[in-house]
Amino acid sequence: MSEDFSFSCGNGAYLIDVPSRKPSLALRMVKLLLTKVPLKNIPPIPQYLPIIRKGWERLSHLLPISPMAACTPFTLGSLQAEWVIPCALDHKATLLYLHGGAYCLGSITTHRSFLTYLSAYTTSRILAINYRLAPEYPFPAALEDALDAYKWLLTQEGEEPIYISGDSAGGGLALALLLTLKDQKFPLPTGAICFSPWVDLTCQLNPLRTHQDLRRYIPLLSAIANLYTASGKPYHPRISPVYGDFAGLPPLFVQVSRDELLFSDAMKLFEKVKQDNGAIILEAWQDMFHAWPYAASFLPEGREALTHVRKFMEKLSGCG
Predict the structure, then answer these.
(1) Is residue 81 within 8 Å of residue 149, measured between CB atoms?
(2) Catalytically active residues, by annotation
(3) Which domains are assigned to the chain?
(4) Which tens digits make up the pLDDT trace of 13-23?
(5) pTM across the whole model
């Protein structure tokens, strides 16, 4: 976020282009590895999911934990949960974080490394949960779990601001939760922070905003969406929040790469929030991969993205 960026509290739609720069060695290596992964050939068949889930969790143990944050697991009702607490004496905010993974993958374990960096960079305590996954538990199970976690947060002592955050499907789930909170007249959070959010499970991507070499992944994306929507209607705002009403919601901060499949989703979201006279800052980064801040433990560009998140939160805290 540029230092001269003027954020108007509670309103306005701002599209910020973050230009390309000389990539770090880590970024070059990750992008090279991603070209070797044949995602289009991975069948989204439920019996493969346990293998993929375990594999991701094992790989995630290779990612270092920030020494500037500590993790404390606990049980929240029927959910596995974890507090990620910054080592700073006073945390400035509380985040409810909803992990990504296409609604059928991911966990606290897969995101623990990233969350320690997010916590340290934003001086925020983070509540992470293992919400129920599809296809075993399709919509609305994940949303129900997220709502229960948020309601529990409201009962906790503390006057610091609350944010909702998530990456990819977790980003979409965070926005679906926001819409649900508004509809059910719960107290709203201070803001929402989304990394490469998946907000349209109809998978109708704008071809003008989707690189030609990425379009071949759309059938895979659609098949995965079906695991979550099950008998639900993909146009429902609590499944595809881009079709919801963003009027009256707190400000959104979104980071996305212009070179990823979900750039079209992010632009749809930006235009919808702007149409509804809502508040959104969309950072469109060049030459990044999907949800790159997840790799903040070893990726300089991921840590830089987190400094932008911190600046957004600092600006928003000055709006009170």
Answers:
(1) yes
(2) 168, 260, 290
(3) 12-317 (3.40.50.1820)
(4) 999 999 988 99
(5) 0.94
